[in-house]
Amino acid sequence: MAGLYKVIATFESASGEPLSGSGYVARVFDKDPVVDDALGSSTLDEAGTASFLFSRLEFNTADTPLETKPDLYFTLERDDVEVFRSCVTWNLDFGAVDPVTQTSKERTQQFGPFRVS
Predict the structure, then answer these.
(1) Out of 6, 36, 48, 73, which could bridge 19 as a Cys pair, Cβ 3.0 to 4.6 Å?
(2) What fold is seen in the domain 4-116?
(3) Would you list the domain boundaries of the chain?
(4) How many CA atoms lie within 13 Å of 24's alpha carbon, on the beta-carbon side?
């Protein structure tokens, strides 16, 4: 599982419109027993999308030295105030092998759209 992993998250308003603008910052974290690992932050583009790029070294840390599958969650801030926090996606397997084709799945995972009220 060496290399880089890409995560894409999309955020929209309660009415389904994409959220965008300079006041929004999305963040992705790996949930851990002691201290959660901050994996990245991103502004939102005009489609309400944030992209993150990180390596295994960023979630395989001192409090979880054997971790191979991150437990991801997202937050969204507007003007430095958290307005949304997603549920945790446990044991995300970037290296999973498709049982039919026997090929590795993409190292890119997409989440959302997350509805923010």
Answers:
(1) 48
(2) Immunoglobulin-like (2.60.40)
(3) 4-116
(4) 23
Compute φ and ψ for 69, nearest 5 degrees.
Answer: -130, 110
This prediction has a pTM of 0.86
List the structure tokens of 46: 């005009």
Which residue carries 């969650």 as its tokens?
73
DSSP one-letter string for the chain: --SEEEEEEEEEETTSPBP-STTEEEEEEE--SSSPEEEEEEE--TTSEEEEEEEGGGTS-TTSTT--S--EEEEEEETTEEEEEPPPB-S--TT-B-TTT--BPPSEEEEEEEEE-
